Amino acid sequence: MCANTEAHELLKLPLLVKHYIDHKKQNETISPVDFLINHYILVDDGDGDTTEDMQLPFKSNNTCNNVTSIGFVPFTDFQLVVKPVSAENNSYNTYSTDFISSAYLSSIWQPPKSY
Predict the structure, then answer these.
(1) CA dist., res. 39 & res. 17, Å (int)
(2) Which of 53, 48, 49 is nearest to 36 (CA)?
(3) How far is residue 36's CA from residue 8's CA, in Å, rounded to a whole number?
(4) pLDDT tens for residues 27-45?
(5) 89-95 long-range contacts, Cβ below 8 Å, gap at least 24?
(6) How far is CA 109 from CA 52, 99, 112, 114, in A?
(7) Is the pTM of this model over 0.85?
(8) How far, in Å, CA of 78 to CA of 38, rounded?
(9) DSSP string, 43-83
(10) Measured CA distances, 36 to 23, 39, 41, 47 (Å)
(11) What is the pLDDT of residue 56?
(12) How far apart are CA 48 and CA 23, in angstroms?
């Protein structure tokens, strides 16, 4: 999972904590949010430790190239044998030939009647 995704950057989290502690020693008023803004949102935080900053998680662009090759081996001894299947020709009547009055069919849409 670490080789094909950016999950390997999570292994650098202890380095982020150490770097924050170093900044906290220099400036006691810096909060974790200010530290993250300075290192991840601002282009240059101006503290002169750019090489250490670029070692933080998700700072450097380490492209992971993955080369996949697929080989196809021709399989020439393959034969598809189609056997004819005989089927009986049966005729089925799917409808009724009985006469049904149209008045009967439309009676469902009529209001109820008392007899």
Answers:
(1) 13
(2) 53
(3) 19
(4) 889 899 988 888 888 876 6
(5) none
(6) 82, 20, 9, 15
(7) no
(8) 65
(9) S--SSS-HHHHTTSTTTS---------------TT------
(10) 11, 5, 7, 14
(11) 84
(12) 12
Here the tokens at position 59 are: 């700072």
Please name the amino acid found at residue 29.
Answer: T
* pLDDT tens-digit map of 63-102: 555 556 676 667 666 677 888 887 777 777 666 666 666 6
Average confidence (pLDDT) over 100-114:
66
* Owner of token pair 């662009």: 61
Q: Structure tokens of 39?
A: 């290192």
